[in-house]
Amino acid sequence: MAETKKLLRSLAGETLDVPPVWLMRQAGRYLPEYRATRAEAGDFLSLCYNSDLAAEVTLQPIRRYGFDAAILFADILLLPQALGAELWFETGEGPRLSTITGAEGLKALKGKDDIHDHMAPVYETVRILARELPKETTLIGFAGAPWTVATYMIAGRGTPDQAPAHALKAGDRATFEALIDLLTESTIEYLSKQVEAGAEVVKIFDSWAGSLKGEDFTRYALEPARRIIAALKQRHPGLPCIAFPREAGENYIGFARATGADCVALDNSVDADWAAAKVQVDGCVQGNMAPDLMVTGGQALIDETKRIKAAFSKGPHIFNLGHGITPDADPENVHVMLEALRG
Ligand code: CP3
């Protein structure tokens, strides 16, 4: 049977008149129904590990907007927790983790095959979604890329310049590389189980890829993505994979070819016409409208939606933002964007 899900058609390389669309962080604090379910769960992590409620918040934006894809509700930092790191969220500040400063911290972590009991509720969320999603909606599973997850595990928090991770890389490369290796192997096992549970596509979020330069980018952003995608495709032939090496700049060029990704997600610091010429030539791209337009709205939102659609109209494209929709976005602006896109 010919593929009917629009997102899968774009990932297979088809150019569509109206691109499929979803938004990073589409289940999030800008939606009143998300805030209500999160309050019911108690806190963010309790929501992630409550399969029924995590499935519910995943479905909320699908009901409200009819997006072409749903992304599993979870977080990239659940994997460090499954490996034995401590994890908590400071209200209004973001994630906090126990830190890894050297070989001792690394040795205390569990192995790649020891994560599945901890992740069982996440796999159950995927199974519920595979049952409950509308038949035209694609289910995306995800994980953080090893470098991005490592930056949080090393620093114990988000950092503007990832300095602690760069310092460990320079000062104790063996420990740093062993951590990247463990995360690469664990991510293969984690994503593989998501696929077995019903995820149809996987996306690898490398939010801090832009701070890796030169050879470091090849070794710690490109190579782990290549290994993860190769292993997943070997186990699950034909599995479409989206890679998001955020703020990679010139390194977006050739990234899909080098890693085997079916689609490269673009952040909004790159120009859409440039990306169409340099990146979309290799296949599907996703992106890349600036998230702040979902706050400010108006004619600028309509114009920019149409400009990005037109820039990528000669090849396979998935419309999205260049980063997550923010808590201060106006839910009405999502309708404005969809109307401008779909007509
Ligand atoms: O996109 C989705 O809707 C799927 C779910 C998802 C979340 N986080 C839920 C979430 C996904 C794919 C992520 C990825 C993620 N998590 C990344 C990579 C993408 C990116 O944003 O760069 C990163 C770096 C994280 C780590 C993380 N989680 C941070 C730094 C924070 C705090 C910042 C913030 O927005 O509050 C989170 C919390 C988080 N993850 C929220 C959501 C909906 C907000 C939590 C809340 O409800 O308070």
Q: Give the class from helix and strand content and strand pairing.
A: alpha/beta
The CATH architecture can be given as Alpha-Beta Barrel
Order of helices and strands: HHHHEHEEHHEHHHEHEHEHEHHEH
Bound molecules: coproporphyrinogen III
Report the count of strand segments: 9
CATH class: Alpha Beta
> Largest sheet, described in full?
7 strands, parallel
Helical residue percent band: 40-55%
Task: Write down the domain tally.
Answer: 1
Terminal Cα span: 28 Å
Number of H- or I-type helical stretches: 16
Q: Note the quaternary state here.
A: single chain
Instruction: Tell me the strand percentage band.
Output: 5-15%
CATH-defined topology: TIM Barrel
Mean pLDDT over the residues: 97
Strand order of the largest sheet: 1-4-5-6-7-8-9
Rg from alpha-carbon coordinates: 19 Å
Ranges with pLDDT <50 over ≥5 residues?
none
Sum up the overall morphology in one term.
Answer: globular
